[in-house]
Amino acid sequence: MKKINAFILAAGFGQRLRPITDHLPKPLLPIIGKPVIEHVLDNIAAICPERVGINMHHLYQQIIAWSETSLFSDKIQLFLEEQALGTGGALKNAEQFLRDSVFIVHNSDILTDIEIELLIKKHHNSKDLVTLAVHAHEKFNNVGIDGRGCVRQVGAMKGDEAGLCKIAFMGIAVYSPEFLDFLPKGDSSVVSAWVRAISAGYEIGTLDFSGEAWTDIGTPDAYAAAVFDALKKDGEAIYLHESIDCSRVELQGNVAIERGAFIEGPAVISNSIILTGTRIQGNTVISNSIAGPGYIAGLESNQATATLQSPLVSLFYGREAGPFGASCIGTGGSDRSYYRLRTKEGSAVLMKCSDKDKDFSRHIELSFFFSRHNVPVPAMLMRDAANKQALFEDLGDTSLYCRLKCIHTAGHIESLYRKVLDILIILHSTVTDHAAECPPLLDRLFDYEHLRWETTYFLERFIIGINNIDVLAAGGLAAELDRLAREVDSFKKSVVHRDFQCQNIMLTNGDIPWLIDFQGARFGPPAYDIASMLWDPYYRLPEDMRQGLIDYYIRRMKTESQEFDEEAFRKTILPCRLQRHMQALGAYGFLSKVKGKKYFLKYVPLALEYLKQETEIEKEAYPNLYALTAGL
Fold first, then answer.
1. Contact 203, 166 (CB under 8 A)
2. Per-residue pLDDT tens over the stretch 321-350
3. Structural fold of domain 4-216
4. Among 32, 110, 45, 117, which Cα is nearest to 76's?
């Protein structure tokens, strides 16, 4: 690629973001731990700019301090404006810096993942003086282009004037250095210079990126949406800087708490962003807000919503059938959809299953059965079997996975896990003893066939799908996996959840655990559930705590079941760990590559670390599996 420089417009006051920008310049607004300008630089980095110019004016001291610690500090050159010069004046002020090559200009308040390389290629392959990144965005459509994509009008447009197509500028453009000749010194707008260039016979071209992700964080609501979209893209509901202690805080919905915030607790924070320097006193409720040092800026509801038309929804709201608004919840790997319905009296969660979902009826029956035997599962309020929908008790938004982000003391963590293991003990004892009462539990076994399917899934979706290693023809490996499946199948069976991990445990007030996503429960080795929870790739437990929790489980099981054999159980743990972690890696491969949920890849390193530890221990019994995993 030819030499290119970049320039980021970062001097603005951020008027629409006040009072936030009275304390923090807009380019430094954090998006889950990283300033928005760093996200812009990450996007620009793909074109390998030789240098990056950044203009500054409002709260420029903070921009300087940030630049000194930025990963891009060796390329950054700052341009201080004593008075704000506007978008055009900023480029003229940096004319000497920009004059020696084509350059790209990017607004500092724009988040997008467009391929900037395509924009630059379009510019080099045309005679355009400027090439604008554009997209169809009704709210901002004020650029008129002709059939060749050339700009013919900018500003207010009435209908399709002279056959022009209305389009929106994305805040990103590539310029030839000759464009600088159309800029006067002092305060000016780059748009006025476009118009002058067109009048002089030059062409302003465009490249359409309609449909690509794009966010302008110019208002508090737009900024909050960008933060929560980033959380969703990462498969998260909560971001907490690692320094934050919120063990006495209840978090609901989407929450981001940045470094340097302090929360005395107890407090409730719901669908909010807590910025650096914020101090929250005890007994405080913050909802749908951005909190900063000395201020709270209210937000409109920022949860994703959907319009539903369902008999169950009509019954819940006590109104005639019609479309109703609901909040979309959940970020896991399930193909089911979940929505929160609210009234003044309370809330409920609607579960919608597809026509192909084979587990809807099973879920309903297991829900009733588990409740009868004191397994803490959400109460089912209504069901519509014909449409495969059901309304359940709303357990809130706090999973064990989310809660563990808040807790830093070993005693608190171990206490939580003991409560969770108490659920397993009920499943593995009382529920197992009464399993004959629930036919769906008897029709599925975690047997050789299913266990062997799991390890084939691991090979197909992770070894081949993610690592591009063809091993299906390896006879020695197949024999080892057969032997492992037969060994695990031989273990004494109880009712097992089969996916007993921290994202499938919800916590209500007082850290009371509840079990969800249990429709896959079946008869299998209880150590599979233990492996799923205590060697969970979503959260690493300290080894001494893990062993203490195993001892706790064993002590409790001995009191609940006279038939429990500690020695036999301990021998089942390692084979079940091997089996479970191959299944987990297969699932992460499938969900990331086939379902497009790339965030599941972040759990691969710990799952693979566990599998390597296990195959190292068992390398004499499974030499081919050991060789395969050791090389990953």
1. no
2. 555 666 777 666 567 888 888 777 778 888
3. Spore Coat Polysaccharide Biosynthesis Protein SpsA; Chain A (3.90.550)
4. 45
